[in-house]
Amino acid sequence: MYGKYFIAGWADATGANGTAIVIVWLQGGDNTYYINSAINPTPVVYDGVQQALPYQEPNGPDRTYKTSIDNYVNSNGDNIEGSAFYTGGSDNYFAGYVGIGTKDPDELLTVNGKIHSKEVKVDLNVPGPDYVFEPDYKLSNLTELKAYIDKNHHLPEIPSAKQMEKEGLNLGEMNVKLLKKVEELTLYLIEKDNKDKEKDARLQSQQEQIEFLKQEQEKSKQQDERIAVLEKALAKLTDNK
To answer: pTM for this one?
Structure first.
């Protein structure tokens, strides 16, 4: 049984009468309570209006309203010392915040410690960053990026270390932002690869031009050498005349 308010006490009358009657004292008013049971119970309200008080427990004492919570009742809910082990296959429902390792949860589930899990699924409330690969996406140039990092000491759109220490991290939003940075980094690498290929092509062209000039220079040298030989031979012929 669960609701906004908690019970003030209970009594198991089954042993005395064999009718499977469990008596529970609840806070009245406009409060709504729900019953989660493996059987189909038939609740009967004894509040002096719907049913008269005191309630005569079969083969037991008279039962009436309480003016205080019994000592065995934890006003914050059930209190179990030691380990709790639930084997039911049905869903469980918690109406309020749940704290593990803390008595002051500030979210639906607050854990003061480490969580060991095989898998964590986070629903996104922000769009995925695949728009980074759209043709009209404006990628910051590296000069602008360096200027931002030099000034702020962290990447654009990523919170600073002080902000993360103070406010913590939203895993869904942070993973999307980190994925965006990875995709932007991929674009930077693709751009760099294209520039390297263009540079390699230019270097190859220049090297081919250098080789061609070397060959032409070698041909010119050989021609000069042949001309020099011919000039010497011509000079000898002239002297002999």
So the answer is: 0.52
Cβ neighbours of residue 185 closer than 8 Å, sequence gap 6 or more: none
Q: Which of 93, 72, 90 is nearest to 81 (CA)?
A: 72
Tokens at 31, concatenated: 């409060």
Cis bond before residue 43 (omega within 30° of 0): no
Per-residue pLDDT of the chain in tens (241 residues, 90 and over written 9): 444 456 788 888 776 556 678 888 887 777 777 777 777 888 888 888 888 999 888 888 899 988 888 877 765 656 566 676 777 777 877 778 888 988 888 999 999 999 999 998 888 777 789 999 999 999 999 999 999 999 999 999 999 999 999 999 888 889 999 999 999 999 999 999 999 999 999 999 999 999 999 999 999 999 988 888 888 888 887 776 6
Calpha distance 39→15 (Å, rounded): 18
Task: Name which of 3, 39, 46 is nearest 20 in CA terms.
Answer: 39
Q: Per the structure block, which two tokens stand in for 116?
A: 């060991």
**Angle at the Cα of 19 from the Cα atoms of 1 and 10, rounded to 5 degrees:** 35
d(CA 170, CA 98): 19
- Report how far Cα 2 is from the mean position of its chain's Cα atoms: 31
What is the rounded CA–CA span in Å between residue 160 and residue 144?
A: 18
Contact between 137 and 129 (Cβ < 8 Å): no
Tokens describing residue 227: 């001309």
